Amino acid sequence: MAIKTYNPRTAGQRNLTTLSTSDLTKKAPEKSLLVPLKKTGGRNNQGYITCRHIGGGNKRMYRIIDFKRSGETTAFVKAIEYDPNRNCRIALVIDTKGKKRYIICPKGLTVGMKVTDGKSGEIATGNCMELGSIPEGIMVHNVELEPGKGGQVCRAAGTGAQILGKEEKYCTLRLASGEVRKFLLTCRATIGMVGNEDFNLVSKGKAGRTRWLGERPTVRGAVMNPNDHPHGGGEGKNPIGHDAPRSPWGRRLMGVKTRAKKNRSNRLIVRRRNGK
What we know:
The chain is mainly β. It is built from one helix and 17 strands.
């Protein structure tokens, strides 16, 4: 997918780059697959901020995505669309009974192509089946962690997991992060990698474009007061004054493992993403 640059008629266009929309075939979304999306501002039901740097942004509707792709169906791709809620494209498909649904658009999927859902099927881009029916070496995405729960792994733009091998009731996958993990053979996955792989090469060009996306400014702790952040205080620029960087609540950061040692899924991880 091409990256578009602009002749800088304004300061905000000087470093601006955007993705080409030549791959999109439909502008207006399917109304039957839209639901309202309420903004939280990063606050919980008591009004406390639980996720910082969230607020503002353009209004958007949520597109209902079929992550489960359960059953035995055959559908045809009707359109490739833009989704403001995720960094990849989505594909509108219609099955033989006339039912419409959205799926994650893999790389290489075009209008008119056939996609199938089932326990097994043809090894072709966009087809969804159980990991036990997919040969070794194939790239997959939208992988289930539990059978029937729906895809939770490798759903972002440009990501994919490679099938390394199968043993007993497990299939070993190398994820996009480098982690090697076991999945049940009955978990479903979709053939191919997620499209829109150039998404991370886009430069927003100006701070305002980030605000349109609902992101508020991030302030460094070193420029705060000591009552606001452990790094704050001092005359002029000063070191943070700790043995390691700290969070605003004093928790040690950078290089500290946060995964629970008694996590039940630890036994399924063959190799951590940091190589340990």
